[in-house]
Amino acid sequence: MFDTLKSDPTAVQMSSYTDIRKAVKPAISPDGELLAFLSDASGTAQVWIKPLAGGEAKQLTNLPEPVGTLSFNPKSRDLLISTDWGGDERHQFWLIENAEGEPRKLTSDATVVHGWGCWSPDGTQIAYSANYRDRTHMDLYVMTVATGETKCVYQGTGWRTPAAFTPDGTALLVNDCTRAMTDQNFCRLDLASGAYEDILPHQGRASYQAAKFLKDGSGILLISDQGRDYSSVMFKAHDSNELVEIAGFEKQDVEALAIAPDQQSVALVLNRQGWNEIVIIDRQGKVQKSLPTPMPFVIASVAWTQDGAALVMPAEGAATSGDIWRCEVATGTYSRLTDAPKAATALPDFIEPTVTSVASFDGLDVPYFVYQPTVAAPASGYPVMIIVHGGPEAQWKPDFRADIQYMLARGIMVIAPNIRGSTGYGRPYQHLDDRELRMDSVADLKAVRLAVGNRADVDDSRIGVFGRSYGGFMVLAALTEYPDLWKLGVEYYGIANFLTLMETTGPWRKVLREVEYGDVAMMKDALERFSPIHKMAEVQAPLMVVHGLEDPRVTPCESEMVYSCLRGLGKPVEILRIAHEGHGFARIENRHTVFDALGRFIDENL
């Protein structure tokens, strides 16, 4: 069967790829004995647990909604989790006592967004943000878990998230994102007096992540790009309001850190062109060792085992579906802790990409991934799908994508650019598409398209464009700005009109979006000019539109406008409306519907 599929990949349906499961978000119990993680083996993301030392995994939750967050109480096996309703992002908290039995609700107002924060050091309280008072603003709350007693400890404008309790439990460290999610103040809230102060005053943009108090009381270790183009490991002394760089890496962001139980070593996750690597440094920042991964990995987090002998991480790659892995620090040996059920049908070998780049209209170097089919190119050259990531403050990473591997098996080359505005290439690059510069990123996409079309192994007449969310805007912009370059377009929950986006997006997100896209009052004319909805008559290629009906970020009206306009103009367009889904597709039956339709649309038009 496997050899047959290799010679005839058309025998495999898209659903065989979307059925590939994954395990993500590992958490280790404080006693070091239990591993909890999320797996979609049941069809949605649910909590599974297994002994960390080995043994069978078992499903712990079977809730009607997918689980989003999980976090162990620092003093017990009590496990906090969160769910929303149909992807509406208004998350509620649940508690699973001793990591067994049925979850019980800690919050119950389904109209409110609850943003997870942290446990108190003694495990009796949790801190989180929520918009009870005003749907536009996220205030800070502390709950005593045993009784459910809740207190609003800070009211403010905009978005903020508790990062950590101080070791004595008397104060909170807060990521204050009043300006933007990636442009923060790092604040301290005294829980007794209510005093709220910026403890790292700075000029320019900065972010602060993974703050960890050192046990000797000397200060805080964290990841920040304050005063830098790339994120580094920083130290804030207890009595100082300045950061000292402990470890920085040339043109690489530090994306995660974990301090060893003995406090003498720190594990770091570094970003190199979208792939991740792990290094161990000492307290002074000297690299003690690198831990090369057994295959190209994308790693979202890292944690030490209780004995300090190993690291635990979620890892996946373009050719490796997501699982939880363990690495023995002494030997650098990696092993899987989970083995998420894979597809029932044997599939062709999966493919890793390579990276190249092209000079854009202004000479800027724009990187892009090339996923090359293993089947020989036809005489006319490969058809191509260019996929644009969302965000836009995000980075295309070569993690596992079922739809990409399906296209490769069908002999379709896949290209994935990191156009200007992407993260991972330094602060200046990240902000080159802000506000008035919006259409420069669309010009980058054109440059990538022309470079790919000039390849000898590509059919220049068969190149499509695909994107989700902000990537959906890029699809619509590409089809309207450069309509003669595209054979087809596919956009999932994309932005068609920046003005209606600002009116309809979840109110807690509006200010954050204005920082990126522009204030409606100040930039109305520019936002109208950037909005593809006003240029639908330019579209030439067939377009598929897909949208979850509970999406709070980019509401379904954006897709309905596109569909209605193109239908009215007699253009080839189809729309797929997915009930009980938000900004993505969390249920296996809906993923089947969406991606089977994608496979058919590509077959018919590319």
Automatic annotation (TrEMBL):
Residues 399-606 form the Peptidase S9 prolyl oligopeptidase catalytic domain. InterPro entries: 6-blade_b-propeller_TolB-like (IPR011042), AB_hydrolase_fold (IPR029058), Peptidase_S9_cat (IPR001375), Peptidase_S9A (IPR002470), WD40 (IPR011659). The keyword Cytoplasm does not apply. GO terms for molecular function: hydrolase activity. It comes from the Bacteria. Keywords: Hydrolase, Protease, Serine protease. PANTHER family: DIPEPTIDYL PEPTIDASE FAMILY MEMBER 6, SERINE PEPTIDASE S9 FAMILY MEMBER. This is Alpha/beta fold hydrolase. It comes from Pseudochrobactrum kiredjianiae.
